[in-house]
Amino acid sequence: MRTKGWEKILKFTYIQIIKSKSYIASTVIMLVVFSLMIAAANFLPGLLSSESEVLRITDDEGNTVAEMEAFAIKKVYICDSSGLRIDFSFLSRFEVEHESIADEEVQEFMDSVTTSLEAVTLAVIEPSGGGFNVRMSRPESTELINNSDCFALLNLFNTAIRDSNLVNLGISAEDVHKANAYISTTVNVGGEEPQSEIAEVITMVLTMATSLILFTLIISYGQLTAQAIATEKASRVMELLLTSVRPLAVIIGKVLGTLLVALTSMVLVGTVSTVVFFVFAPLGTLGEVVGMVDTSDPNLTALTAELGTVFSGFSPLNIVFITVIFVMGFLFYSLIAGLIGASVSKIEDLQTALQPLILISMLGFYLTYFSTFTGLDPDGQGNFLVTLSRYFPISSPFALPSAIIAGKMSVGEITLSIGVLALCLALFAMFVAKVYEHIILHNGNRLKLKDMIKLAKSK
Amino acid sequence: MLRVDAIRKRYGDYYAVKQLTFAIERPGVFALLGTNGAGKTTAIRVILGMLAKETGTVTWNERPLDVCSQHGRIGYLAEERGLYPKYNIIEQMHYFAELKGMNKKDADRSIDHWFGRLNIDEYRKKRADQLSKGNQQKIQLAAALVSDPELLVLDEPMSGLDPVNADLFKGIIREQIDNGKFIIMSSHQMATVEEFCENIVILNRGNTVLQGNLNKIKKGYGRVNLSIKADSNILPIAAECGLELTSHTPNQTDFKVKTESQAAELLAKIVAAGITLVKFELREPSLHEIFVEKVGVGKEGCENAD
Predict the structure, then answer these.
(1) Which chain B residues are within 8 Å of A243, Cβ to Cβ?
(2) What is the pLDDT of residue A306?
(3) What pTM was computed for the model?
(4) CATH homologous superfamily of B2-218
(5) CATH architecture for residues B223-283
């Protein structure tokens, strides 16, 4: 009986918030910002890839053995005074053209390279102190080539000089070639499939974005509960409501009403983000239509495959888990906000009263952020802060969804964490139910926590 | 029938209502009076179940009064008016009607009736903060009456109203009495209370200092107030008769008499002196006078006229 009528309050709260200009404006802004972020995140790789080509290194049979960024230097003039008779034909595999020049031509080519507007360099190889010295000269302008580009090519020269030196020392070219066989390196957690670098980056961005979106929704809409209750108290509507329903029905209706608003926003953000993601994705509709991307490009196909792997984190079970955690996290913070709203008599006191809630939520969010995203424990296993963030009720609503998407928690761990959150929520709801009826018509100074605890203890 | 039996409400060590008992046995207006901070609003909130009581019971037709099960039977006009400032008036009215358990059709019909009766039809689509205080008060009264309640609680219904709207409110209150409604009215306007109320309770700092039937209370005091208007100075004659002067203005002179024979003696002497009398009125004390007497400093003892 104490909760009778909550559904009418929920309905009115939901409709009034949804149709308010402030909600419409803030939702539109939020959707535009998230859409722009997602679109930009999807366009950037395409834009970057158009500027820096990817170079595929193949073996003698034409099989790809490695991929790397193509060299900025397209041609190199080489004056080889080393006496090693170095074979520079390997440069063609890196799509770098080369031309040998004589000692007396060095100055002439030096002048030519210095003023060149093309991606050319001059390399002079000389014996030096029992070893060798390679001097590379680049054009004055750094628009086409900079020092880093030169050092990248010089690394290849170092390898070539060392190989030629070995051949001159009597080791066969075949043996040198065998010794230089490409070695691929990856790191993965024992028992798990190795994840590529790009997949790791996408996963990290996705989990950070999920945490941020949930944090934004929980805190901003949770505060709406406080705002709504404080407004009803300050405008004295509360007295009118209490001739029809009990105080508990008011807070239940308000909290669930704002929860529904938050869920509506979550669905809106999720739907719009997904549509924007797939429209602007590297192989998305728009990219293909405007001819920005080459759908036959195997790199993009690989990227799409990685995205598919990452999005497999959004399985139906995980979506259910995330929704349950969001709802519980929202209820937890919203009940606190509702209690704060009921503790003030004047609307101008509300912002001050909400400060502890904002601090607690920030603490929860940053506990998640620092423990999960700052490399404190990249695998999320065994670190105290990571474990704390996933089981502590003030941070678990933000930490759990990202851990679930990244596949860092087992179903058992997720269930345990949800259980802890549910227990705290139930205990807090009982406290709110006990205190709320006593404070809802309180006028005067803002009630402090110790006053509320005293009320909860009283009969 | 409303029965309030020994309700008590305490905030910490402070008793807002110490012991309040009364009953409204038949339709009409019951007055809950007191100075500011006497405990009237707290008493109303306790009666309506908004605040938990320490002791006592409140029953409506022999059943505990409960806003959840009897919400449609209770109408409340709070002292500090409350409307959502930014929301559309008609939507608020529908919300309040729905909370009272009304369906949309009945709510529409009732809202149409009261908006017409209170001349506020033109404000349906406006926001509350766009209306004057008086019009907001009319909307509040409409909200209190929308479910056609059997028990109506009016906390300072006339405060802030202009004479035209005050008459409009009085007319509606009379209609409600005629329709057999039970009304609890709290007001500082004693003339209004005297106009409507049969029974009263006066609270002072949480204590009941006087309660009972207003006519009986007045009769208990007797006709001790004498008002005279004469063409000549009557003060020397009044002094001879031992009358206590309470006020003297160019229009009227007021005395307190111990017995009615004292007033008769004065009248005889005035006539004998050949003074022309314009007004000679011997009457019971007004509610205002009783109120001021009862809630004076340090007066907490309870009297019951019944």
Answers:
(1) 48, 50, 67, 71, 74-76
(2) 63
(3) 0.72
(4) P-loop containing nucleotide triphosphate hydrolases (3.40.50.300)
(5) 2-Layer Sandwich (3.30)
